[in-house]
Backbone:
């Protein structure tokens, strides 16, 4: 079975729809690694669209923030403003959907978490050392995470835990080789790797073939909706720069 791997949609319906269009018939099921909402202008539209797809979805820190489950004083002021707007905008039904999301999921050879297997909602795996510290915290060969909004593969290369980062090769399927790996598909709705194109991946869970992908989308249309909701200018600007 081929899985569409998405993460960090962040209420960006245009990016989400563009990814679905780009991935066309290349998948049968969706694994969403969390942060469906937060930052962007379309929280209900994104949750509604996700709910029409055969899928499983994990909870992210922004999903929890929108539920009032987190102390958001650690968020920066722009993120906080977006959280408040998101909370006020979500329908009761979509709030209930987000409340029911699990923080981790183990399926076949894969462990899924939003941030990391060690701290599923919070931890950012931004470097090989942090990845190395996380390998003892899951039992499957592979772990999929989002949260950093940066597509990457961390591979354990020796018995003593040495870990290296492998940059994604877009559009080129990669055979997962049995070495333990932590893989991030990147962000659909708010990329932060200096590339503004929406990121996602396709995974064949029988053959363990993974493919990172990127696709440009109509960023200006999203920015226009954000201005319409008076969302912070910095959050509007960052979409076109990918940070
Ligand atoms: Zn996120």
Residues:
């Amino acid at each position: 079975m081929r899985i569409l791997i998405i993460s960090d949609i962040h209420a960006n319906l245009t990016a989400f729809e563009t990814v679905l269009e780009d991935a066309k018939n290349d998948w049968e099921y969706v694994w969403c690694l969390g942060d469906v909402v937060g930052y962007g202008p379309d929280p209900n539209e994104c949750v509604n669209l996700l709910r029409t797809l055969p899928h499983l979805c994990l909870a992210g820190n922004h999903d929890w923030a929108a539920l009032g489950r987190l102390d958001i004083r650690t968020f920066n002021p722009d993120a906080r403003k977006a959280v408040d707007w998101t909370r006020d905008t979500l329908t009761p039904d979509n709030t209930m959907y987000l409340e029911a999301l699990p923080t981790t999921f183990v399926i076949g050879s894969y462990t899924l978490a939003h941030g990391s297997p060690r701290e599923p909602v919070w931890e950012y795996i931004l470097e090989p050392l942090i990845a190395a510290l996380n390998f003892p915290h899951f039992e499957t060969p592979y772990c999929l995470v989002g949260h950093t909004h940066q597509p990457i593969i961390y591979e354990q290369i020796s018995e003593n835990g040495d870990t290296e980062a492998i940059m994604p090769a877009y559009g080129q399927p990669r055979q997962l080789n049995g070495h333990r790996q932590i893989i991030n598909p990147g962000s659909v709705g708010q990329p932060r790797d200096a590339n503004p194109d929406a990121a996602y991946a396709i995974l064949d869970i029988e053959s363990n073939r993974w493919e990172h992908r990127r696709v440009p989308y109509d960023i200006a249309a999203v920015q226009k909706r954000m201005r319409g909701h008076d969302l912070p200018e910095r959050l509007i600007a960052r979409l076109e720069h990918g940070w």
